[in-house]
């Protein structure tokens, strides 16, 4: 008889401890992967869906009504009525909700989705036009407006721009708008608005087509575009007349062409590569930072394709594009002698230093939702801003690993050779989306806000794809039916509104505010600038505050002093109740001809940063100049008052300069 008894058929043997732990670990990992990485078959768009133009027409009519209500809200704001803000945001939310609902529903034709997205993109652009219908809204817009006027009026490139010396060295935007002026006979301002509208159209189209080709789903692409619109830059920063606006749209076209090379048949690849090859130099001469990011993105695509052991990859084409993209920025920089290290270097280094301090200290160096003037945004707007960031974070959490393992619906997994990832395009977008939290950290610092805002727009491209993937592949079942579709559109509308709040893009129009860009630009300042050009002549050396300097540079065609142009700092001219030797030396060193004084500045703290030049607010204990400080020019015998326009006065100081 054997010493080891055979187990009875009905007996249950105890599970060894090691096997039990392995089983629990496997179940735990399966549960985690079911939340963050399980990728069921994606929903395929129905082939029998018909385009319903009446839906597109309904969205257009709804947006038109909401834009009219926004115009009414702007008029109420100018009149000082407190209900203006509520009307503005309600109309804007209804407009975005209707477009998002029409574009994100399942079972919709791709052209219907695309048309609704284009209508929404143009409507968001018109919000800014309604806010400032007679002139540009943002400070940066006037810097590039000066370059456009130089090209149109002087018929030359690379003319001096004292307020932004680097702008004439990257004139792609102005070169694109100048022919519109010549061909249509439009004035520069409406021609610039038309150019930005066309740029917005290209950006939405390129973004949608890129996402649709990578995912194989027009619904996923539409949701991704809506998430991209929720970025802090889409409505404001990339809706203004500035060189990054055009460069960003071209970047989307270039990257869309490069990412499609992986999926296109060999006979079609050269066509997309040729488009990218032609546009890379255009991006380079349009905006410096975007050209570097374009090169980095194409190099990333090349690395992923080289590391992916799949036959038939367009490695040679992508390597060619990468070489061109890497070589173009330094070649152009050398050709025009652009001072990139002096312009970008300090901003990036200060931002990195502040981010390091933030991570070590644990507390942000800037106060959220509070302007430089100390005014805090209402609670409802703050909540929308927080919801926007939180929802993007949730989408990244549930979609990141899904993007890494994403493959087109119906595509079978290859056996030999084994692929480390199904799609290089989806991996690249996932990595770009993972950079979104880093941009948020940058925005939590005082000096890193600008860096985070600019990089955030590019990170939002990846974040849009990842968030849309989480909606369609994880939350899809929960968002079925009328209630689910409505909830999704509502969340997307809140995200876009929150992006506007976080970006500080639009406000309800009010009466004049100090150093508030669009809120400070009014007919009086424009008239004074026009008078300077007509009476004093062009290219005089002028000193002015932040707002009047851009008006004098554009409408007045004056040469405004700026430290960016190597001129002496001018804030000391306005603080202090007498003109001493130091102030006279500033006038002499800067060869100042005229000083413009705005007597409204002592009313309050500046809305955006400073009165005259960066740092002047903290230098003078966060106090505005006093009325007697600004009146000292009246008391000096060698200074002549040449214009008295009420709150705006212009003084001739050429005798002191001599």
Automatic annotation (TrEMBL):
UniProt keyword Membrane, yes or no: yes
Keywords: Membrane, Transmembrane, Transmembrane helix
Transmembrane segments: 53-72, 84-102, 114-139, 218-235, 241-261, 268-285, 291-307, 314-332, 379-404, 425-443, 455-475, 487-508
Keyword Transmembrane helix attached: yes
Protein name: 4-amino-4-deoxy-L-arabinose transferase
Protein species of origin: Bosea thiooxidans
């Amino acid at each position: 008889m054997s010493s080891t008894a055979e187990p009875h058929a009905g007996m249950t043997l105890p599970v060894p401890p090691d096997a039990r732990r392995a089983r629990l670990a496997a179940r735990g990992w399966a549960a985690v992967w079911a939340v963050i990485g399980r990728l069921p078959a994606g929903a395929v768009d129905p082939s029998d869906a018909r385009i319903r133009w009446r839906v597109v027409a309904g969205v257009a009519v709804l947006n038109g009504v909401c834009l009219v209500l926004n115009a009414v809200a702007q008029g109420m704001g100018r009149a000082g009525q407190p209900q203006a803000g509520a009307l503005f945001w309600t109309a804007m939310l209804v407009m975005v909700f209707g477009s998002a609902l029409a574009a994100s529903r399942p079972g919709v034709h791709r052209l219907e989705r695309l048309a609704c997205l284009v209508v929404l993109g143009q409507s968001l652009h018109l919000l800014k036009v309604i806010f400032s219908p007679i002139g540009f809204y943002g400070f940066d817009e006037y810097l590039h407006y000066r370059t456009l006027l130089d090209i149109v009026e002087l018929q030359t490139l690379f003319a001096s721009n004292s307020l932004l010396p680097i702008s004439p060295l990257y004139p792609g935007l102005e070169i694109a708008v100048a022919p519109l002026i010549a061909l249509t006979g439009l004035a520069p301002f409406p021609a610039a608005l038309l150019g930005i509208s066309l740029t917005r159209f290209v950006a939405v189209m390129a973004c949608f087509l890129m996402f649709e080709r990578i995912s194989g789903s027009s619904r996923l692409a539409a949701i991704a575009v809506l998430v991209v619109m929720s970025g802090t830059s889409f409505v404001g920063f990339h809706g203004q007349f500035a060189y990054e606006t055009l460069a960003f749209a071209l970047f989307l076209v270039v990257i869309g062409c490069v990412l499609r090379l992986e999926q296109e048949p060999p006979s079609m690849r050269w066509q997309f590569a040729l488009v990218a090859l032609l546009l890379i130099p255009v991006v380079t001469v349009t905006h410096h930072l975007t050209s570097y990011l374009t090169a980095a993105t194409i190099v990333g695509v090349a690395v992923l394709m080289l590391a992916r052991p799949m036959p038939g990859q367009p490695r040679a084409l992508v390597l060619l594009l990468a070489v061109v993209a890497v070589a173009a920025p330094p070649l152009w920089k050398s050709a025009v002698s652009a001072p990139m290290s002096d312009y970008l270097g300090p901003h990036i280094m200060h931002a990195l230093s502040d981010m390091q301090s933030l991570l070590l200290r644990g507390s942000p160096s800037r106060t959220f939702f509070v302007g430089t003037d100390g005014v805090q945004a209402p609670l409802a707007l703050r909540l929308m801003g927080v919801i926007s960031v939180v929802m993007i974070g949730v989408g990244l959490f549930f979609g990141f690993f899904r993007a890494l393992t994403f493959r087109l619906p119906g595509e079978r997994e290859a056996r030999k050779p084994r692929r480390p990832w199904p799609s290089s395009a989806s991996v690249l977008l996932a990595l770009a989306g993972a950079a979104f939290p880093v941009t948020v950290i940058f925005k939590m610092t005082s000096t890193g806000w600008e860096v985070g805002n600019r990089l955030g727009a590019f990170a939002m491209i990846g974040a849009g794809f990842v968030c849309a993937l989480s909606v369609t592949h994880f939350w899809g079942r929960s968002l079925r039916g009328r209630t689910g579709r409505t909830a999704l559109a509502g969340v997307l509308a809140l995200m876009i509104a929150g992006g506007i709040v976080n970006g500080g893009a639009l406000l309800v129009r009010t009466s004049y505010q100090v150093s508030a860009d669009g809120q400070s630009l009014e007919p009086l300042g424009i008239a004074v600038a026009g008078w300077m050009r007509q009476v004093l002549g062009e290219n005089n050396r002028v000193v002015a505050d932040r707002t009047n300097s851009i008006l004098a540079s554009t409408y007045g065609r004056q040469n405004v002093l700026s430290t960016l142009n190597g001129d002496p700092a001018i804030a000391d001219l306005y603080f202090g109740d007498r003109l001493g030797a130091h102030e006279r030396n500033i006038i002499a060193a800067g060869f100042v001809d005229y000083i413009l004084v705005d007597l409204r500045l002592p009313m309050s703290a500046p809305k955006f940063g400073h009165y005259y030049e960066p740092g002047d607010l903290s230098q003078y204990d966060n106090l505005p100049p006093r009325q007697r400080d600004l009146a000292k020019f009246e008391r000096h015998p060698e200074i002549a008052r040449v214009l008295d326009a009420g709150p705006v006065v212009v003084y001739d100081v050429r005798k002191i300069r001599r």
